[in-house]
Every structure is written in structure tokens, then in C-alpha cells.
Specification:
Elements: H1 3-22, E1 26-27, H2 29-35, H3 43-55, E2 59-60, H4 72-85, H5 93-104, H6 108-128, H7 136-150, H8 163-210, H9 216-223, H10 227-236
Parallel strand pairs: 1-2
Protein name: RNA polymerase sigma-70 region 3 domain-containing protein
GO molecular function: DNA-binding transcription factor activity
Organism: Parablautia muri
């Protein structure tokens, strides 16, 4: 596959995910095949596409079972949280539109009521993002914060029917940002751990040769690592690198 083909494939895959997202995370097999028609993918390549979509909670032909992506702890939390939400009032489409219009006009009571009306939808949206490194409760929390902000921003809309799309998008964006930030933090933690382990290993090897703890200066001279990198590793380990002087 040439470079242009690779770029086209990546762009098409992104478009397919966006289409599925607009269709409640579900897409038909025909839509997938039509999207990739220009690339003339083999059955094996299409099968890989379908596997990719499933891993990203996108159903092909029928919705995926989102509960498969939940841990036992998340399922228990979800059941309890849904019990709390069950006492919230239910309204018809006409009354809901009236609440939205009042919220768009800046009425605080209507905005608060709208938050309660959309809390169950935040729960359903959170299930789409489960299994990506963030506990369901945290996703719901981020979604609820976005919802609370969103209801105060509806005044920029022209029609009430645009409100749900705006609120859902804000909730989804908040959850996606939460997942991205968590992934970055985990990557940072892995790099920190790797640096600490590297310094600890080199210190252990040198201490074994010298039959005593080693200094930062000795370790730097022996390994070529900077003294700053070694001291940073000492600090990040909580000064627990036992073969280095100045640590526990």
C-alpha cells in the first residue's frame, strides 16, 4: 500500500468512526464497504477493519453489548447510580422542548431541570468510553460537569432541536479529553518508572563492584548519565534507591 493509499485508508477509517458515532456507535456493513470501495480492500483486510471497529465499541449491523467492556466494579457502580437516577422525573417531548427554550432564555431553574433530564443520557454515553483506562464513575463525573456547563451556553442556539446535539457533543468531548489526559499521565508514569529503574540498576551494579553505596558523581562518571537525571530519579523514587548515597 503506497503512501497515498495509507493516507486515504486512515482518513476513511476516521470518517467511518465519525459516521458510526453519529449513528449511536453503529454502522452497517454496506456503509463500511462503500466507504472503503475506492481502496478495493480484500476480505481479509475488511475483516481487520471490522475487528478494529469492534474494539472501539462500534457495532457493524447491530449495536455491540457495551456491558462486555465494563469491569465488575463498574457494573456494580452503574447499577447503584441508575437506582439513584430512577427517581428523577420523566417528561414528554413537548415539555422537554419547553424546558430547553426556557434554559436557552437563561432561566436558572430550567437549566437545573435540564441537567436532571440529561443525567441518564450521560450514563449511556459513558458506556461508549468504558474500558479505555478511566473508571466509569470518573467518566460520568466529567460528563456531568460538561452538561452543567452546557446548559448555561444554550443561548447561542437558534432552535431548541439543536440543544441535544450540542449537549451530547460537549459530554462526549469531555470524556474523550479525560481519556486522553489519563493516557498521557500513564505514559509519563511509565517513563518515570523506566528512568528510576535504570538508575537503580546502574547504581546496584556499581555498588556491587565497589562493595558500598555510590555517589551521584561516581554513577554519572561511570554511566554517562547526567547528575541531574540521577538526582531527578532519586527524587521521583522518593529517595528509595538503596545503593545511592543520599537515599534510604
Amino acid at each position: 500500500m503506497g503512501e497515498s493509499q495509507e493516507i486515504l485508508f486512515a482518513r476513511t477509517l476516521k470518517e467511518v468512526r465519525a459516521l458510526a458515532k453519529a449513528q449511536e456507535n453503529c454502522i452497517s456493513q454496506q456503509q463500511v464497504e462503500e466507504a472503503f470501495a475506492e481502496l478495493k480492500l480484500s476480505k481479509a483486510q475488511l475483516a481487520l477493519v471490522y475487528d478494529y471497529l469492534k474494539k472501539h465499541k462500534i457495532g457493524v449491523g447491530e449495536p455491540v453489548d457495551l456491558d462486555e467492556y465494563l469491569s465488575e466494579a463498574e457494573i456494580d457502580y452503574l447499577e447503584e447510580y441508575k437506582k439513584e437516577l430512577a427517581v428523577l422525573e420523566k417528561v414528554g417531548d413537548g415539555e422537554k422542548e419547553a424546558v430547553i427554550l426556557a434554559a436557552m432564555a437563561g432561566e436558572k431553574m430550567a437549566q437545573n431541570r435540564l441537567i436532571h433530564l440529561y443525567l441518564p443520557q450521560v450514563v449511556e454515553i459513558s458506556r461508549l468510553y468504558a474500558g479505555q483506562g478511566v473508571f466509569l464513575e470518573d467518566l460520568i463525573g466529567e460528563g456531568n460537569v460538561a452538561l452543567s456547563m452546557g446548559v448555561t451556553m444554550l443561548g447561542c442556539l437558534e432552535h431548541a432541536k439543536e440543544a441535544e446535539g450540542m449537549l451530547v457533543k460537549m459530554v462526549m468531548d469531555a470524556m474523550e479529553s479525560c481519556i486522553a489526559e489519563n493516557a498521557q499521565e500513564q505514559d509519563k508514569d511509565k517513563k518515570v518508572l523506566a528512568q528510576v529503574n535504570k538508575v537503580a540498576k546502574k547504581a546496584r551494579e556499581l555498588a556491587k563492584e565497589l562493595h558500598r553505596k555510590v555517589t551521584v558523581e561516581e554513577l554519572a562518571a561511570e554511566t554517562g548519565m547526567s547528575e541531574k537525571a540521577i538526582r531527578d530519579a532519586m527524587r521521583m523514587s522518593g529517595f528509595a534507591i538503596e545503593d545511592l548515597e543520599g537515599t534510604l
